[in-house]
Amino acid sequence: MLANTPSLDELTVFTSLVRLGDLRALALQTGVPSKVIAERIKDLETKLAIEIFEKDESGKLSPDKRLVLTEQGESLFTSGRKVLDTAEAMMDGMSHRNAIPKGTLYICSSTGFSRKVLGPILSKFQQVYPDLEIQLEALDRRINLLEEGYHLDIRVGSENEPGLCYRNIASNYRILCASPKYLKDAPPLKTPADLQNHRCLVIRERDQQPRLWSLQGPNNGANMRVRGAMSSNMGEIVKQWTLEGNGIALRSLWDVREELESGELVRVLPFYSQQADIVAAYPERLSDSVKIQVCLEFWPKAKCCGNTLTPTAKN
Asked: In terms of CB atoms within 10 Å, which of 115, 191, 228, 272 comes out highest?
């Protein structure tokens, strides 16, 4: 190896920093102090004789601000990902021969789904495959898998993107719901058009268009632009607002099933719903990865989301 060639370890630190966006986040994930990580990046810049990240006025990386790649840094990230993918493919090849998946599996999903569903499933998964290291990032924003370095993005609802593979791992629907407290004094609600007269709680999360609720149901369904004074990019916050009587929400059944069964929430317009299956997305270049395949095959065994995710209204 040439003296100025980055090691796999150096590339891993660098690409992980790009993926997480700031020194503090990587320090929390790895347990390595921000100062040490910054020094490793400085050493890498010296080795390659380039500037990887834009610096502050002192010429240093800020531990609190989101880092911005220079043009040379972007080129290094692209090349570095290819090198790490090649090394990972080699390790996967060894895993295939040994039938034991090893290495690190980088997974991301929304905060609510990660907390309520994905986290418990991955706990069981790692117990079955103890040689795999699992890193789960909860992110309530759209993810660019081809650029950010994650192996799997578990999505609630998904639009196909070029360069990615998809697998449906569970059926799911979003339904309209509200608390008895809100419905007690609310205007009539018999058709989707009546939503115009209601306070609707809007979520700006990943695949969803915030104020457009596309519903499947009688008469070819309905596309409603809703209004409301409250919105958030976190589904958990919108759910809490719904429970507190602030309006009507469009939420996944996996998220509100317990509250529907307890009566804390009531399903409204029960013959209308929005399909939002649980989908695993991953880069095409990783389609043969044994780590990804064993993870996807584990989902049916884990009985993801239970067996009641159906849009059918109760009689």
From this structure: 272
| Amino acid residing at 233 | N
- Which amino acid appears at position 62 of this protein? S
pLDDT for residue 208 is more than 70 = no
Distance, in Å, from the CA atom of 280 to the CA atom of 278, rounded to the nearest integer, reads: 7
Domains and CATH numbers, the chain: 8-79 (1.10.10.10), 100-171+277-302 (3.40.190.10), 173-275 (3.40.190.290)
176 with 249: CB under 8 angstroms? Answer: yes
Residue whose entry in the numeric block shows the structure tokens 């008895």: 180
Q: How far apart are CA 178 and CA 180, in angstroms?
A: 7
Residue 34 has pLDDT above 80, yes or no: yes
Judged against a pLDDT cut of 80, whether residue 57 lies above it is answered with no
Reduced to 3 states (helix: H, G, I; strand: E, B; else coil), residue 235 is helix
- The CA distance from 47 to 35, in Å, is 18
What is the pTM (predicted TM-score) of this model? 0.72
**Residue pointed to by tokens 């719904």:** 242
Q: Are strands 222-225 and 212-215 parallel, antiparallel or unpaired?
A: antiparallel
